[in-house]
Amino acid sequence: MEAPPTTDHPRPESLTDLFVSFSLLALQGFGGVLAIVQHEIVERKRWMTREEFVEEWAVAQIMPGPNVVNLSLMIGGRYFGLPGALAALAGMLVAPLIIVLLLILFYSRFADHPALAGALRGMGAVAAGLITATGLKLFGALRTSPLGLPACIALGIACFVAIALLRWPLAYVLPGLGVIAFVLAYRKLKP
Fold first, then answer.
1. What is the pLDDT of residue 19?
2. What is the structure's pLDDT at 8?
3. Which residues of the chain have pLDDT under 50?
4. By the 8 A CB rule, do 75 and 67 touch?
5. If 0-12 CB within 10 Å is exposed, 13-18 middle and 19+ buried, where does residue 180 land?
6. Which of 39, 48, 105, 126 has its CA at 20 to 30 Å from residue 58's CA atom?
7. How far is CA 93 from CA 22, 83, 126, in A?
8. CA distance 145 to 61
């Protein structure tokens, strides 16, 4: 487990603070919580730096399960160990679970309505915009990466080409590019 962060920035006050904070994050970011989590955790609460967030996000993406849930577990565990991880996880899941169950009841009744289908397509475009905006906002943190900005950009382009254009499965692309990034970073950091 990662060592607790230094005290040069604020931290959650309690397990309740973690639970409430992640509950509010989950409710704000319904369908696109990454942008909200980054803004709240890094910019507003300052529990992490941009660089720490990018590092934790990278690890959260390679773990099985929803990325933002993995991130909540890691942030909770970072400050309060297993109880913190469970409090953050509960915060991310309890309220959205209740809302999803209610939406299922609503959707099953109105699924055939054309306005609902159009609204869902429109929300997909908004979610893509949120993800793009978050990526651009975090782009500056790559300047401090041991790989260097050109290598990070090249790996990002390779990932986009492999998944979006060549339609290779994420299950192959992520470990493949992850190993390449690991080897390159290891070579640069090796004494």
1. 95
2. 72
3. 1-3
4. no
5. middle
6. 126
7. 9, 15, 22
8. 17
Mean pLDDT taken over the chain: 86
- d(C-alpha 96, C-alpha 93), whole Å: 6
Q: How many other CB atoms sit within 10 Å of the CB of residue 171? A: 8
Cα separation, 57 vs 60, in Å, equals: 5
Cα separation, 111 vs 128, in Å, equals 23
Query: In whole angstroms, what is the distance from residue 174 CA to residue 67 CA?
Result: 13
Residue 114, classified by CB atoms within 10 Å of its CB into exposed (0-12), middle (13-18) or buried (19+), is exposed
Q: How far is CA 132 from the centre of its chain?
A: 13
Q: Cα 11 from chain centroid?
A: 19
